[in-house]
Design goal:
The complex is a heterodimer of chains A (186) and B (271). In chain A, 68% of the residues lie in helices and 0% in strands. By secondary structure, chain A is mainly alpha-helical. Chain B is built from 3 helices and 12 strands, in the order αααββββββββββββ. The longest helix of chain B has 36 residues. Chain B is globular, with a radius of gyration of 23 Å. Classes of the chains: A mainly alpha (186), B alpha+beta (271). Chains A and B meet through helix 1, helix 3, helix 4, helix 5 and helix 6 of A and helix 1, helix 2, strand 1 and strand 2 of B.
Chain lengths: 186, 271
């Protein structure tokens, strides 16, 4: 119960952080010469949290959290019918299916794995946007933003996963002794 | 049948079902349901407070601490200001002359609208969907589909409304478009968002006269944006295109990501 409430609170914090806290900071940083490519970007804490849950919960837990996170996202300035929620859902399931094949022992491995997932999530999001919204503009204009999005979130993922794991332990979501996909400390 | 086939097929079916359910649920989403209203009612003030605080801190840094080059920039801006004042005076003369001619021809003034000024309080949750959330100062009858402008030109349109804020779909979004016209040659075009800071001009006839530096404005024919609002300047024309159409790129007059105060057009003023 305590753990469920904690992750609902984290979901709201993640949405507020990525819509209101980080965008002004990225706008500021993008004024620095050479960092203009960061304009309009933010860190996707919501998807990061969902990937963490997918790696540390069973299939039913993953499905429930993926649906809840996707539905709530719709109230935070999402415009394409269901593309965001569906992309979240599909990547969370994919992440869960891959977890039995993984043992992430260091931050570099986690960043690489998270980067691959973020790339897939972004790609599915864009493809579903084209499918559901009948967008005709070519996807090639989104390749650079997708690459920046992937790298930014991949770099942040190990830190966020470590924080979430600590919260998970404090709220009795997982035991300290649990051996799973994520087995390292930063 | 391979071992992986059954779970893969089940996953495909499940994903297909979820996409269908979610897209049906989100389709034609014009007003918020009661549960959504409660969540938004809680989240919106927090978003507003966080945005305002971070903005104040960033502004504090930019305006009080990081002041190198300010003096040089000030000199440059003073010169630019003098030049713009001269141009403005010339423009004012043209406007007055235009008014006199309009009165003579008994034409109606189409350039005045009833507007609501709104302030940005958050960005959209997705990097790929270009939206922003603005707080409303008064209880004006905002509804989805209304045009939203920036002092630099067209910004986008309202897609969702709540009592204290509304979400705006930016013109840079992949799903946005506006009917435009090249001011110099009067060639009609469709301006589309590309998800980047530049816009794309489509359906320009290969015979249309379009050149780099041409101003593109709204045509008013799409029923959303009034006529004559600036959209941007042509930055690149794709020459050598075969067929009926040619492509071109447009640089907006302002940066959509940095838009702070916006104007929502309620309706054209009737006289």
């Amino acid at each position: 119960m305590r753990n469920g409430i904690a992750f609902i609170a984290i979901m709201f914090f993640a949405y507020v952080a990525q819509t209101s806290l980080l965008p002004p900071i990225f706008l500021f940083v993008s004024r620095i010469p050479g960092l203009g490519f960061l304009l309009g970007h933010t860190l996707n804490f919501v998807t990061m949290t969902l990937f963490y849950l997918s790696l540390n919960r069973d299939l039913s837990g993953t499905l429930i959290w993926a649906t809840v996170y996707g539905m709530v996202g719709n109230w935070f300035g999402i415009a394409w019918n269901g593309a965001f929620a569906s992309a979240l859902f599909m990547t969370a399931v994919l992440c869960h299916l891959l977890k039995s094949q993984l043992l992430l022992k260091d931050a570099a491995g986690t960043a690489l794995f998270a980067g691959a997932l973020f790339f897939v999530e972004g790609l599915i999001h864009l493809l579903l946007g084209h499918l559901l919204q009948q967008i005709q503009v070519s996807l090639r204009y989104q390749l650079l933003p997708l690459l920046v999005y992937t790298i930014l979130n991949a770099l942040a993922a190990p830190v966020v996963f470590t924080v979430l794991r600590q919260i998970d332990i404090w709220t009795d979501g997982i035991s300290l002794r649990t051996r799973g996909t994520l087995e390292y400390r930063l | 049948v391979a071992r992986w086939f059954k779970p893969a097929f089940a996953l495909f079916l499940l994903s297909y079902l979820v996409v269908q359910v979610l897209s049906i649920n989100f389709k034609e989403k014009k007003t918020l349901k009661p549960v959504e209203r409660i969540i938004v009612f809680i989240a919106a003030p927090v978003q507003n407070a966080v945005w305002t605080t971070v903005e104040a801190m960033v502004d504090g840094w930019r305006h009080y601490i990081a002041l190198t080059q300010t003096s040089k920039l000030n000199d440059k801006l003073q010169k630019e200001r003098a030049e713009l004042t001269r141009k403005l005076n010339e423009q004012n003369e043209v406007v007055r002359e235009n008014e006199r001619l309009r009165q003579l021809l008994e034409l109606r003034d189409k350039s005045k609208f009833r507007v609501v000024v709104a302030e940005r309080m958050a960005s959209g949750a997705s990097t790929f969907e270009k939206t922003l959330r603005v707080s409303l100062r008064d209880s004006e009858p905002i509804r989805p589909g209304l045009a939203v402008l920036h002092p630099g030109g067209v910004l986008g349109q309202v897609i969702e409304v709540s009592p204290y804020f509304c979400d705006v779909l930016l013109l840079t979004d992949l799903n946005s478009a506006v009917d435009g016209i090249v001011q110099r040659s009067r060639a009609r075009t469709l301006v589309k968002g590309t998800g980047t800071s530049e816009l794309k001009l489509e359906y320009l006839s290969s015979k249309d006269d379009v050149a780099v530096g041409d101003e593109v404005v709204t045509s008013g024919l799409d029923g959303i944006y009034p006529e004559g609002i600036p959209i941007g300047v042509v930055s690149k024309v794709e020459t050598g295109a075969k067929g009926l159409f040619k492509g071109a790129w447009l640089k907006p007059h302002f940066d959509f990501s940095r838009a702070e105060e916006v104007e929502i057009i309620l309706q054209p003023e009737k006289r």
